[in-house]
Design a protein that fits this description.
This protein is mostly helical and 156 residues long. It has helices at 5-14, 19-30, 34-45, 52-79, 87-114, 125-135, 141-154. The longest helix is centred in the middle third of the chain and has 28 residues, at 52-79. It starts with a helix and ends with a helix.
Amino acid sequence: MSNNPLWDYSIATYSLEGVTPACLALQDMFGLDVNVLFYAAWLAQLEQRLSHDHLAGVEAVIADWRHDMVKPLRALRQRWRQVPDAVGIRDEIKSLELRAERQQQDTMYAYYQGSAGLPWAARPLRENLALVASFSGQEDEGRFAAIEHLALLFQP
């Protein structure tokens, strides 16, 4: 266990059957941030409804880090996927990418701790995930179907 329950939740949930490909599909096809999806799901587990203002605040504190650190590391790792001689280096890049994502989640958790409480809601998972999906841009039926599929995978 770490000192960040969001990270602990994310690690445990990411390993559930079907979650990894569902998250990666949302990331690759629709540009959604998997860490923000986990944040929304973690809040739902705490029975807290994510608000637009809170999500905007989270996005504001992580945007530069995601743009300058997480995405470039991911792009580099993916680009080297087809280079057999780069397996060891690619693994090191993957480790750095994971550390960068951990830092992003640490920042998100610190924001959560310093923010005003979110409203209580019974089972707000779908609403929280849908807010993240809608926050990212134009509506797309496929994106919301993928969010619904992820919500089913996240259910205990």
